[in-house]
Amino acid sequence: MTTGPPPTVSEAVDVVLEALSKVAEARVLLGVALRAEQEKTGASANELAQRVHGAMSRPLVLRALRNSD
Description:
This protein has three helices and no strands. The protein is mainly alpha-helical. Helix 1 (about 10-40) packs across helix 3 (about 60-65) and helix 2 (about 45-50) packs across helix 3. The chain has a domain at about 20-65.
């Protein structure tokens, strides 16, 4: 972390919320890319999970595929 003074609770919450927002945006982007790849190639969820090199498990790939834009 840091050697400086600790953040306030409010500052820490802001950082966490910003990180969660970025994760949510990344999941939407990945979902769009996965659905496009599936439409283009007919790849199964298992094949798509292998293509993301372990970054996501099959259940997470399935959830990303189900989410709408």
